[in-house]
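Per-residue structure
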Amino acid sequence: MASSLLPPRPVSPLVPTRAVSLSLNTLEKKFTGSLPINKSRSSIRCKRLQIRAVGAAPVVSSNLEADDFRHPLDKQNTLLFRAIPGLDELGKALIGPVSEQIMLLQNIGTSIQVSKNQLTDLHQLLQEAAKILNTEAPDLYVRQNPVPNAYTLAINGKKPFIVVHTSLVELLSKKELQAVLAHELGHLKCDHGVWLTFANILTLGAYSLPGLGFIASFLEEQMYRWLRAAELTCDRAALLVVQDPKVVISVLMKLAGGAPSLADQLNVDAFLEQARTYDKVSSSPIGWYIRNAQNRQLSHPLPVFRAREIDEWSRSSEYKSLLSQAIRKEM
């Protein structure tokens, strides 16, 4: 998680964030899906980047489609978003070659591109996840950054790419890291990337034009509502790959308040109980109002809400049916 992690959801893991002002440093993150998290700039001790491939789960289905696992809220909000007249055309008009080149060159110039010959274990994790989700693996970059985050970019028909920060690699286990890659692949599988890019650029463009502030505010609210729904879908994609709800929930927990030094003390079951407590506290009329006010301007659902959602889906007949199809195919 985009969800995305930190910036406003360019197309993520995982903690909610609000939009930030546009600058050359944030331009790339504004237009992709990310895995949100704390904006803390505290330094993180550098370690050698070492990732060992984990055993691949069975392919869910050679014919797996995005709608097979798309969250109902994602379906609903995507329809609402697409109903905005002229959004496609306006979004494409606002995407210029300069902004695209800035984002592409920034990755190539400041990151390490993962391949068969570079960070091969991480490359294998991505390939395995893409195979399970029945989608093409995008380019993958690792960037030095103390803020744990991952995000995806896909615009103008160009080959998409995923960026993972080194601090996220340090924070997560191998299986958890694969869950993050699967989450980002979920954005691509569901075509979230292009839509999120259009939405971000459209909002920024509207804010810059006199008299269009109200329209921009409306579009921003619609965008965030859709973004939060898209995150729930991509958490499902992560679960389909790692096939263990505790792995996905552990990612959410660590992004909410984890650290490498605390890894052996974190308890997924306790975090799920925390999520149930949040539901109880927010069930009153006042609690419901406060909860909705909290979420209105967030690019990602709260980590406790996402944990509860993925826990429930892991026990659903829909999820079990997808897994049983994979088992029958292997037999």
In short: The two ends are 33 Å apart (CA to CA).
